[in-house]
Specification:
Blueprint (H helix, E strand, L loop, with lengths): L10 E4 H4 L1 E4 L19 E2 L2 H5 L5 E2 L4 E2 L2 H5 L2 E3 L4 E6 L1 E8 L3 E3 L3 E5 L6 H10 L1 H7 L10 H6 L1 E4 L2 H40 L17 H4 L16 E7 L2 H7 L2 E2 L4 E3 L1 H6 L10 E2 L9 E3 L1
Parallel strand pairs: 3-9, 4-8, 13-16
Antiparallel strand pairs: 1-11, 2-10, 3-5, 6-9, 7-8, 7-10, 12-14, 15-16
């Protein structure tokens, strides 16, 4: 979107124009116990801590720094916006506790003309752009210069507040929904355990159960994979179910990412199954699904 096409009152700005970006620091050698103290109130922020948070506010960390560790890191007061810049790039969060960040994070402070929560969501929206700007190597890395040059669209402050409020409400609703889904999954697992093991019986069923082997009640067959490096075996009209198809499918496999040609099927030692066959992954922890 060009500057002339921006909504009225909006402007394109660089992060360095609206925030002071400073990189974290790490005490060395990091493995030394000298830098850590479980009784300290100052947290040591790791990517894993953000993964365990609600995604907006960091309330706890698994490690805490000693006075020596704090002196050799970058201390931040509660309420500071930070963002990861190494390995997992472009993950922002606001600190809810006194904390220190290592050199895999930057802090965005002394904000000018931008609401903090709006900037938080603007950074989340720029995650792909930051990853693309990351320096090549064994893992993605972004430095403070790249963060300072990152451009975002900035509306008026009143509109920033409204946008941030809407996005926050949507995020809170998502968090609650995920929590409800987790509870329902736990209830379902409990029901499966009780009903499938005969620990609980449905009304009007009193007949005794019998124990059988899977081979007594079903005919089983194994899958197959065409030899690698043979493109002529792929791209035909025969769906070829992979582990990734099962992962994203849920209960039924409706489509597959890859298809086989007739020669691919013949050379894979696989079987062409009809609809409604139960598939079970042998090389991943997956629930059974049905081919539909």
């Amino acid at each position: 979107m060009t500057s002339s096409a921006l909504p009225h009152g909006w402007q394109r700005v660089r992060i360095g124009e609206i925030a002071e970006v400073t990189r974290g620091a790490s005490p060395r050698p990091i493995a030394s116990d000298r830098w850590f103290d479980n009784s300290s109130k100052v947290g040591w922020v790791r990517i894993s801590d953000i993964g365990r948070s609600d995604g907006l506010l960091l309330k706890t960390t698994t490690q805490r720094l000693s006075a020596d560790g704090i002196a050799r890191s970058r201390y931040l007061p509660p309420g500071t916006l930070i963002m990861s810049i190494a390995a997992t790039v472009g993950l922002p969060i606001i600190t809810g506790i006194p904390a220190c960040i290592h050199d895999g994070f930057v802090a965005l402070q002394r904000l000018r003309g931008v609401d903090q929560r709006f900037l938080f969501y603007a950074l989340k929206a720029q995650e792909d752009a930051l990853k693309a700007a990351g320096q090549t190597g064994s893992q993605a890395n972004v430095n403070t210069e790249i963060v300072n040059r990152l451009e975002i669209l900035l509306p008026t402050e009143s509109e920033q507040l409204r946008i941030a409020e809407c996005l926050h409400d949507a995020e809170q609703a998502t968090i609650k929904l995920k929590g409800l889904i987790s509870k329902l999954e736990a209830v379902k697992q409990g029901m499966m355990q009780q009903l499938l093991m005969g620990e609980s019986r449905l009304p009007d069923f009193v007949e005794p159960w019998r124990q059988v082997r899977l081979g007594d009640v079903a005919t089983m067959g194994s899958g197959g994979t065409p030899p690698s490096g043979m493109p002529q075996y792929y791209g035909g009209g025969i769906p070829w179910v992979s582990i990734s198809d099962m992962t994203r499918s849920g209960r039924y496999v409706h489509d597959t990412a890859k298809t086989l040609t007739t020669s691919g099927l013949v050379n894979s030692a696989a079987t062409l199954y009809e609809d409604g066959v139960v598939l079970y992954a042998m090389y991943a922890s997956l629930e059974p699904v049905m081919q539909l």
